[in-house]
Amino acid sequence: MLNKYYVIFEELEAAIRNGKYPPDTILPSENELAEQYNTSRETIRKALNILSQKGYIQKLRGKGSLVLDLEKLQFPISGLVSFKELADKMGHSSVTIIESFTNKQPSSLLQKEMQLSKEDSIWEVFRVREINGERIILDKDYIVEKYVPGLTEEICRSSIFDYIEKQLNLKISFAKKEFTVEEPTEEDYNLLDLEGFHSIVVVKNYIYFENATLFQYTESRHRPDKFRFVDFARRNEA
């Protein structure tokens, strides 16, 4: 026999899926749900935790449980796809805003991260991604100039990957990725629409050409309610 909290989770899950609670609405409060299901707040809290873990809701401090869009953008964890390719595939209205575009010497930290010398120069590009009128991603790109010459703001506003592959005829091969959940910085709050959100998903990408040359490091900062990070895993026999 299923625990009561799991039965409640399944009923709320069905209600979200059939549209009783549409995306971007707030679920009834814990007190209201406890009264509705004739149970304790602790039982309701367990049901809501499962909904949160499965990507149906986002708990907002002081506001309650926000119902998420089940059709939100899916970023493949193991894949390597540009923002433009993803937005086009999902059919969303998207805009890229160039916050800064500079050519400079790498910091000591970047020299270490990207195996560069003081004499090397990098493109530093900060881009805000707006989808359906909301600023929800901040991409901070650091690209080695000697490997990717001729970069411009217009290219960055469109697609850096397209430029590398179609104009420079270079093959982007693989990336090493690191995922963390962090508190937003002041910069995040200034550049993104984060009202009510107290966490941000940070994806660090080390991107390589087919000859294993590291040419780009990107720190991509995502508002957590608009994305699913997905992967396909196969169990190997022992």
From TrEMBL:
<dbReference type="InterPro" id="IPR000524">
    <property type="entry name" value="Tscrpt_reg_HTH_GntR"/>
</dbReference>
<dbReference type="Pfam" id="PF00392">
    <property type="entry name" value="GntR"/>
</dbReference>
<dbReference type="InterPro" id="IPR036388">
    <property type="entry name" value="WH-like_DNA-bd_sf"/>
</dbReference>
<keyword id="KW-0238">DNA-binding</keyword>
<dbReference type="InterPro" id="IPR012770">
    <property type="entry name" value="TreR"/>
</dbReference>
<dbReference type="InterPro" id="IPR011663">
    <property type="entry name" value="UTRA"/>
</dbReference>
<keyword id="KW-0678">Repressor</keyword>
<keyword id="KW-0804">Transcription</keyword>
<protein>
    <recommendedName>
        <fullName>Trehalose operon repressor</fullName>
    </recommendedName>
</protein>
<dbReference type="InterPro" id="IPR028978">
    <property type="entry name" value="Chorismate_lyase_/UTRA_dom_sf"/>
</dbReference>
<dbReference type="GO" id="GO:0003700">
    <property type="term" value="F:DNA-binding transcription factor activity"/>
</dbReference>
<feature type="domain" description="HTH gntR-type">
    <location>
        <begin position="2"/>
        <end position="70"/>
    </location>
</feature>
<dbReference type="InterPro" id="IPR050679">
    <property type="entry name" value="Bact_HTH_transcr_reg"/>
</dbReference>
<dbReference type="GO" id="GO:0003677">
    <property type="term" value="F:DNA binding"/>
</dbReference>
<dbReference type="Pfam" id="PF07702">
    <property type="entry name" value="UTRA"/>
</dbReference>
<dbReference type="InterPro" id="IPR036390">
    <property type="entry name" value="WH_DNA-bd_sf"/>
</dbReference>
<keyword id="KW-0805">Transcription regulation</keyword>
<dbReference type="GO" id="GO:0045892">
    <property type="term" value="P:negative regulation of DNA-templated transcription"/>
</dbReference>
